[in-house]
Recover the amino acids of this structure.
């Protein structure tokens, strides 16, 4: 998509990429003063990983709602032990700490409301429509815009803490970077407009707080989140291939259940459930068989 822009646009774009705006945590602190996520905001220029740092704080008793944000990570983590790469000062890299009173089997809903808060905040601030690719990627069209890493600690069946980490590509130009694992985009790449990272994060954290309290109030009345999540799912109804590390299965993505498990209907008509894995959509219709 970059190749189609005029030279004039190219100049503007390069200026934007060469002059990243430093993140201003005061904007966040002011906007979230009376919020769950405004009590303890920690910003670092550079950090290993916001998730790892926050897990360390959680073990030392940090309060629910603590937020860690960084302009750069030297050891950013993705799912399945992968690296999360992001250029300094251009994207959102943050983690939040929750201490939910939920059994471990019900925790998926928190990743779900985090992803929904992300796509709604992006829509509010940039006007762009994004989708969720199971289990926890944010996609724009066929390109990855962001990812979520959820980590939690359980002692004797009781959840001690849960860390939700998100990397969201905001003002970055992924096309100039080293080879990336997936087709990747950013809000700037899609809209040609610089987007305020602080504004997106404030919007997202406000939404997350509202949804989190809703989940806490009555776990049985959270159907709306599942419906919305399924509606915003990039893969539902499509023929996909899932790689679990042990096997590689093709099937039609039929739905995501309350535990976050993806149901696939295989060519033989079997129903298979998966709790984790890497999914790719078969874009080429001629590759699709009858399911
Ligand atoms: C994925 O798509 O594999 C998940 C990526 C999650 C990246 C974020 S960036 C902020 C937080 N800190 C980390 O080390 N990882 C998450």
């Amino acid at each position: 998509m970059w190749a189609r822009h005029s030279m004039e646009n190219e100049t503007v774009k390069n200026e934007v990429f060469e002059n990243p705006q430093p993140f201003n945590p005061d904007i966040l602190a002011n906007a979230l003063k009376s919020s769950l996520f405004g009590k303890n905001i920690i910003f670092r220029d550079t950090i290993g990983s916001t998730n790892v740092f926050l897990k360390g704080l959680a073990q030392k008793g940090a309060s629910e709602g603590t937020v860690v944000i960084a302009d750069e990570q030297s050891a950013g983590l993705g799912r399945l032990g992968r690296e999360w790469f992001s250029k300094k000062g251009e994207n959102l890299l943050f983690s939040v700490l929750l201490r939910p009173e939920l059994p471990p089997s019900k925790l998926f809903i928190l990743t779900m409301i985090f992803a929904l808060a992300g796509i709604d905040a992006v829509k509010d601030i940039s006007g762009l429509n994004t989708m969720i690719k199971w289990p926890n990627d944010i996609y724009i069209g066929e390109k990855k815009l962001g990812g979520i890493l959820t980590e939690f600690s359980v002692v004797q069946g009781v959840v001690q803490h849960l860390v939700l980490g998100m990397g969201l590509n905001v003002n970055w130009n992924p096309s100039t970077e080293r080879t990336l694992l997936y087709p990747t985009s950013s809000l700037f790449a899609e809209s040609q407009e610089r987007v305020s990272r602080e504004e997106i994060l404030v919007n997202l954290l406000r939404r997350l707080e509202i949804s989190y309290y809703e989940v806490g109030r009555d776990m049985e009345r959270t159907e709306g989140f599942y419906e919305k999540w399924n509606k915003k799912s990039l893969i539902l109804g499509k023929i996909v291939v899932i790689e679990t590390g042990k096997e590689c299965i093709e099937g039609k993505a039929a739905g995501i259940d309350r535990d976050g498990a993806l149901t696939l209907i295989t060519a033989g008509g079997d129903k298979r459930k998966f709790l984790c894995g890497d999914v790719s959509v078969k874009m080429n219709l001629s590759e699709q068989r009858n399911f």
In short: Residues 1-13, 285-291 have pLDDT under 50 and may be disordered. The longest strand covers residues 143-155. The chain is about 30% helix and 25% strand.
